[in-house]
Backbone:
């Protein structure tokens, strides 16, 4: 890997690592990654996870210097109102090393305009004998979705700057796994990321009660678009194409210029109302007569309660117009939404309303309209949820609400063809889409200001 030169294209790490394995001639890097153990691991082809770990190790670990302990890895984050040099000094690096590092980085990035939150990995070593100041051995700083700057200290003591970049490709990814801790964590482990996970949760909310229907070990299958580096790291996600869980499957289908989701029979996965209008929460009280936990006597409970922590997002159960948003006696902060036909939904004990949610405001299904609280007559944080039909409250569990679109004619034929393509992909695996427009999906803004 050549030294960094802004006029040259970034050098590639992978070919250099392979060359190092073959010739063992890159001792000048001074990284522990080129030790005998690493060379032995490079003999067989590396999978993406191993390659990513090896690259990261090459940036942040170095051989111990004479008189210093073995280098240790440390993450350093630039805080609000702090300079890059200040963050380095806060990590205990001696002023001379900090000054030299800034001078080394200056040709590549704007060291005076680092945004708060930027995190870099440093390799530092402590002098044997108790000196509190530490020696900076190396540092890596991610400057984009697939680019990293690395500063390393050569054997002559001077710092060297190098840049490594990975190729980005766009692929339609096929991923499967079993639910472990939670649905969102499992999706993240499959590389889906928050955007895909949130989209999946909103769709499943029409058909699945997350508290009662899902179990640990349940299988989840996903097809989604993403931008991914050579090492297998997701840098951006696009559309959710397919998802399946507990026998429920839905397929993305473009109909009249708009994307929507349908089950295997061509019926819209979107029901009229969500079954679970809260991002996460367990049913703690059902519809019907009960002993009131505060008043102490039996009376009708005209909705269902979802126990959830304060601040948990509450979703609009369906498209509609906000009818009421304010205080209402025992219900505390109360929200009522009027839907098409004779249907209405109510949300009580809210901590607060989402910005812009007020009477007359139009909302869409799955939109965050408020946050779980414990206002009004409440023993703890929860969402009290009601469904009204023709002005009367009905049991949200089991009530028959209007169904979504059912495809027919030419739309159904086109959907069946799309379903066949997706089903075949589930068998064949991921597909490279890089010939489309990878830059559009892969673009991610970086808080690090690069020099032109």
Residues:
């Amino acid at each position: 890997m050549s030294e960094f030169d802004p006029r040259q294209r970034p050098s590639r790490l992978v070919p250099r690592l392979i060359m190092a394995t073959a010739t063992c001639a890159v001792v000048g890097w001074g990284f522990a990654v080129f030790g005998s153990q690493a060379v032995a691991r490079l003999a067989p082809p590396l999978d993406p996870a191993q390659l990513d770990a090896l690259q990261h190790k090459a940036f942040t670990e170095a051989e111990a210097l004479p008189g210093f302990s073995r280098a240790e890895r440390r993450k350093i984050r630039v805080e609000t109102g702090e300079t890059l040099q200040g963050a380095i000094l806060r990590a205990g690096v001696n002023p001379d090393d900090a000054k030299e590092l800034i001078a080394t980085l200056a040709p590549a990035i704007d060291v005076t305009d680092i945004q708060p939150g930027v995190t870099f990995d440093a390799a530092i070593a402590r002098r044997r004998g108790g000196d509190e100041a530490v020696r900076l051995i190396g540092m890596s700083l991610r400057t984009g979705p697939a680019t990293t700057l690395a500063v390393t200290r050569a054997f002559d003591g001077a710092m060297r700057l190098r840049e490594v970049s990975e190729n980005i490709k766009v692929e339609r990814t096929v991923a499967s796994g079993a639910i472990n801790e939670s649905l969102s964590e499992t999706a993240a482990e499959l590389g889906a990321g928050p955007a895909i996970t949130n989209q999946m949760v909103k769709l499943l909310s029409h058909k699945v009660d997350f508290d009662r229907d899902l179990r640990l070990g349940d299988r989840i299958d996903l097809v989604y678009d993403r931008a991914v580096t050579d090492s297998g790291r997701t840098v951006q996600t696009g559309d959710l194409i397919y998802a399946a869980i507990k026998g429920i499957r839905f397929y993305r289908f473009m109909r009249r210029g708009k994307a929507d989701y349908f089950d295997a029979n061509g019926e819209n996965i979107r029901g009229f109302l969500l079954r679970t209008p809260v991002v996460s929460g367990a049913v703690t009280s059902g519809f019907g007569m009960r002993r009131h936990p505060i008043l102490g006597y039996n009376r009708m409970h005209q909705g269902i309660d979802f126990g959830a922590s304060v601040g948990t997002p509450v979703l609009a159960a369906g498209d509609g117009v906000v009818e009421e948003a304010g205080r209402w006696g025992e219900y505390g902060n109360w929200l009522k939404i009027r839907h098409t036909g004779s249907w209405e939904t109510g949300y009580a004990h809210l901590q607060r309303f989402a910005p812009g949610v007020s009477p007359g405001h139009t909302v869409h299904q799955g939109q965050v309209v408020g946050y779980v609280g414990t206002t009004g007559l409440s023993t703890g944080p929860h969402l009290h949820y009601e469904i009204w039909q023709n002005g009367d409250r009905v049991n949200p569990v089991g009530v028959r609400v209007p169904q979504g679109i059912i495809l027919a004619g030419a739309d159904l034929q086109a959907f069946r063809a799309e379903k066949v393509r997706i089903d075949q992909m589930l068998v064949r695996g991921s597909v490279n889409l890089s010939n489309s427009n990878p830059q559009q999906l892969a673009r991610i803004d970086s808080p690090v200001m690069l020099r032109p």
